[in-house]
Amino acid sequence: MVRSSYQFTSESVSEGHPDKVCDRISDEIVDLVFREAKKAGMDPSQVRIACETLATTNRVIIAGEVRVPETLLKKDKEGNILLDAAGNPVVNPSKFKSTARKAIRSIGYEQAGFHWKTAKIDVLLHGQSADIAQGVDEKDNKDVGAGDQGIMFGYASRETPELLPAPIYYAHKILEVLTAARKTGIGPAAVLGPDAKSQVTVKYEDGKPVGVSQIVLSTQHLDENLTSADVRKIVEPFIREALPEGWITAETVWHINPTGKFVVGGPDGDAGLTGRKIIVDTYGGAAPHGGGAFSGKDPTKVDRSAAYAARYLAKNVVAASLADRATIQLSYAIGVAQPLSIYVDLHGTGTVSEEAVERALAKVMDLTPRGIRTHLDLNKPIYARTSAYGHFGRKAGRDGSFSWEKTDLVSALKAAVKA
Fold it and tell me: Does residue 270 have an active-site annotation?
């Protein structure tokens, strides 16, 4: 039997967390390449980016494989593109470095050990492997293949209006509210630093979230004389603002900066890497994760695009009242266009069978890599905003960002299930 009363915990990290700094830089580079491709007249479907970032004390290293427009390549005095020993075009590091600096500045790092002006930035990007390209690119009558093998999961639950699990949704919201207050530079939150982590333990009764039993927040602060008690006085009003009314009670246990002083933060306090916060990026542990990271990848990488598609489908299944909870798995093989399998679990909440939903999903959306990119309009610079506070549970933007959060498949799904 499914438990109806329990506690579940999820964590989030702010945009200033070392790993999130790296995710942001990697995704800003994805956006940079798409913007440059549009300006240069390059077909955006030909863009390829697999960008990894490492950050430590005043040092950033950007590495990976790319296919970019000529405006991002090195040229000789005659205007010819320079090639490396392997025959690949050589990337011009200039715009990549400036993009990284702008990201660090936007996050708010101007401390001695990590400053947007003084950090040394190395760009080690090179051309995409021809072996990978032959499986992914269109050729003759061959459709675009998946950029790699793998499994991707999507999930939706009727716990919040955004159909995201409550623990991860509110862990994100706490940090978003605090970050917005910090960036105004006005009021008590102005003394907080960019690096922060939150954790929320949610109480469930009869399967529904009803309150918070534990709240954890560790946040960097610029005044080294502040105590944990001082920090709590600053952050508590914002935490209460982020959580539903009545969820915090006299029994709620608070852990604010439990180790005490937190002055040295960000990559100066701990090295960061792209893709190390994939559970924060998705469902906070309330649903499976296939294992692939999102940030720094163009949408031919199904690690990213198919995970977005799976969330999109799961959200529409729940929005169509076909279930109160839905988990969807998609699987792919490198160079193969069609998914190998579609799996649905409605967790005993379905109004129709899982098999009926699986058949319907295959009808309402083309789940090839090209089909996903086209349906969700993913070949555009929309990724930097996804790099912090979750890739899911966000509002779809006018610029096309978070298109996978739309519920525009409801009518088609209902019709397909009936058919």
Answer: yes
Q: What separation, in Å, do the N-terminal and C-terminal C-alpha atoms of the chain show?
A: 32
DSSP lists the bridge partners of residue 123 as 62
Mean confidence (pLDDT) of the chain: 94
Q: State pLDDT tens for residues 146-174.
A: 777 899 999 999 999 999 999 999 999 99
Q: What angle is formed at CA 309 by the lines to CA 43 and CA 209, rounded to 5 degrees?
A: 145
pLDDT in tens, 38-69: 999 999 999 999 999 999 999 999 999 999 99
Q: Which CATH class for the 18-135 domain?
A: alpha beta
Is 197 part of the annotated catalytic residue set?
yes
Q: Is residue 414 annotated as part of the catalytic site, yes or no?
A: no
Distance CA 82, CA 75 (A): 5
pLDDT of 68 reads: 95
Q: Active-site residue among 262, 294, 392, 402?
A: 262
pLDDT of 325 higher than 70? yes
Mean pLDDT score, 13-26 = 98
Domain extents in the chain: 5-13+166-265, 18-135, 150-157+301-418
Bridge partners of residue 49, in order along the sequence: 66
Catalytic option among 11, 15, 17, 119? 17
Q: Which entry of 182, 197, 325, 373 is annotated as an active-site residue?
A: 197
**Catalytic residue selected from 31, 75, 255, 271:** 271
pLDDT reading at 141 higher than 80:
no
150-157+301-418: CATH architecture: 2-Layer Sandwich (3.30)
Is 408 marked active-site? no
Reply yes or no on whether 180 is catalytic: no
Annotation marks residue 303 as catalytic: yes
Buried b (16+ CB within 10 A) or exposed e, 353-372: ebebbeebbeebbbbbbbbb
Task: Give the pLDDT score at 358.
Answer: 97
Q: Which of 176, 303, 324, 354 is an active site residue? A: 303
Quickly name the fold that domain 5-13+166-265 has. Answer: GMP Synthetase; Chain A, domain 3 (3.30.300)
